[in-house]
Design goal:
about 210 residues; alpha+beta; tt1808, chain A; 6-stranded mixed β-sheet; 5-stranded mixed β-sheet; about 25% helix
């Protein structure tokens, strides 16, 4: 039998007394989530904390390549601000995500604040092998419901990039383009922004 700590937890067990100080899954509020001061990547969805996997080198190289291309395009034209995770983006009541790359136009800069952004104008997610459904289905629905005009899904598993735009009713996405190696992906929102798809995935091998 494990010896018992005077506080109640047995040696070798989690420190349950600390855990009890925090809300249970399904009961986290936005305020409680925002009060967390940690460099651990986590998102809030329907009262639950979702812990994100640690990005791999190849994931980060792809993100860095896309961020640089988008930053160059936006900065020269003074179109707005581009940032990268970790950055909290509120996409609904009790829904806070951390997209890999996020853009807010100059016209909507009032929706940016220091703790989190209220939505965005364009988000990019690089699909993770750990939970592809999160980017392909869950976030697709949430970003559309939040009215984010454009969503890029960059999938290293099959070297494809899908660009989605809001449908006319503004609550779901339709595919503006499905691009593979040899194609050039083109933004709908940022007219003139094009990226060689092969170059996106080649960046992972640097």
């Amino acid at each position: 039998m494990q010896p018992t700590d005077p506080t109640g937890s047995a040696t070798g067990e989690p420190t349950w007394e600390i855990a009890e100080l925090f809300p249970r899954q399904g009961h986290w509020s936005e305020g409680e989530y925002l009060s967390i001061k940690s460099n651990r990547l986590m998102e809030l969805s329907k009262g639950r904390l979702e812990m994100l996997p640690m990005p791999t080198q190849s994931h980060q190289l792809i993100v860095a390549f896309l961020y640089q291309r988008l930053l160059e395009f936006v900065t020269v034209r003074q179109l707005g601000l581009v940032l990268f995770a970790p950055l909290r983006v509120k996409v609904g009541d009790g829904q806070i995500r951390e997209p890999d790359i996020v853009f807010m136009s100059e016209a909507n800069k009032h929706r940016r604040n220091n703790e989190f952004w209220l939505g965005a104008d364009l988000v990019i997610e690089v699909v993770s092998n750990d939970d592809p459904k999160r980017d392909l289905e869950v976030k697709r629905h949430e970003y559309a419901q939040a009215g984010i005009p454009e969503y890029w899904i960059v999938d290293p598993r099959n070297s494809t990039t899908s660009i989605l735009r809001l449908a006319a009713e503004g609550s779901s996405y339709i595919e503006a383009g499905a691009y593979k190696s040899g194609d050039v992906a083109a933004s709908v929102l940022l007219e003139g922004l094009t990226i060689d798809v092969a170059a996106i995935f080649a960046a992972a091998n640097e």
